[in-house]
Design a protein that fits this description.
It is a single chain. The strands form two sheets. Strands 2, 3, 4, 5, 6, 7, 8, 9 and 11 form a nine-stranded antiparallel sheet that branches. The chain is about 25% helix and about 30% strand. The protein is α+β, with helices and mostly antiparallel strands. Helix 3 (about 50-60) packs across helix 4.
């Protein structure tokens, strides 16, 4: 594994001698705009191994993406190589349908400490709830970014992560602005909760196996590939391609939704996500679940 090879993968060619916030932010933004959040391996008959060398080969050398366990593990390695004070944390994602957080830990995120200040760095949530910059770990403070306003709140050692949602204009659905339903209270979308207990990647081995075999989890029910862009995000879920431009007008995102044919999937993955699969993709998007990544992965 080589940090320069990683830099080539994410198209980063700026100075990196200082483990400061400016460098962290730049590397993070290159990371999320080059490496898709995707679960295509399980829909191509491929197993996902949760070890660093396998993740490095898949993402850096084969130019694939991965899910949170892979994407954030690779970022953890890269930032550690650059001398950052970093640790792995575990989170429980919020399920809007059940209006509750998952009982079991099912997400990996990173905490970086710079000059005594703690930041949450998470490149692996994907979709419309992906942060674009490291976020200060401070309770109750609004932290505006291009995707929207993010916020942490702390209660008795548990931290809660949420985002203020914007309205969505979907021209394909109406001649007038169509607003997607907003889950939760008002326009606040809960994302996940976590504690500051340091974790090791091996703590997620059982989760990695479970997500690949459990028929009930959403990653089995949907083939997903999403990538942040300079203006918003693109996401392919099953045959549905969603393209989002953030803040198209004041407090409103522009959302284009297109249904692709089987023949268009391979070309779309290559042209929009720079992904060429070794094995045939069997797309899936189980009915009764959200058709895109605007509201939920």
């Amino acid at each position: 594994m080589n940090i320069q090879e990683y830099f080539g993968r994410v198209s980063y060619n700026k100075p990196h001698k200082d483990a400061d916030l400016q460098t962290l932010t730049a590397i993070f933004q290159h990371h999320i705009q080059a490496i898709p959040f995707e679960n295509l391996s399980m829909h191509c008959g491929e197993s996902i191994e949760l070890d660093l060398q396998s993740t490095y080969d898949k993402i850096v050398r084969k130019k694939r993406g991965g899910w949170c366990l892979e994407i954030n593990h690779l970022l953890f390695w890269a930032l550690q190589e650059l001398g950052y004070d970093i640790c792995i944390l575990g989170g429980n994602s919020y399920e809007p349908a059940g209006r509750a957080y998952t009982a079991e830990m099912n997400h990996i995120l990173l905490k970086v400490v710079i000059q005594g200040n703690s930041y949450i760095v998470d490149a692996g949530f994907g979709g419309a709830y992906q942060m674009w910059q490291p976020l200060r770990l401070i309770s109750g403070k609004d932290q505006p970014q291009v995707p929207g306003i993010f916020r942490f709140t702390e209660d008795n050692g548990t931290w809660y992560f949420e985002k203020v949602k914007r309205k969505h204009y979907i021209p394909e659905q109406s001649e007038t602005p169509h607003f997607t339903d907003t889950p939760g209270v008002g326009n606040i979308r809960k994302i996940y909760r976590f504690t500051l207990e340091p974790r090791h990647i091996n703590d997620f081995q059982e989760l990695n196996t479970y997500l690949q075999v459990s028929p009930d989890n959403i990653l089995r029910k949907k083939s997903i590939c999403s990538l942040q862009t300079t203006e918003g995000l693109i996401a392919l879920v099953g045959w549905t391609l969603t393209e989002v431009k953030y803040n198209y007008t004041e407090d409103m995102d522009l959302v284009h939704i297109t249904t692709l044919t089987d023949e268009e999937l391979e070309k779309t993955l290559k042209d929009k996500f720079n992904i060429v699969l070794e094995n045939k993709l069997v797309p899936v998007n189980v009915r009764g679940l959200p058709p895109n990544l605007v509201d939920k992965i």
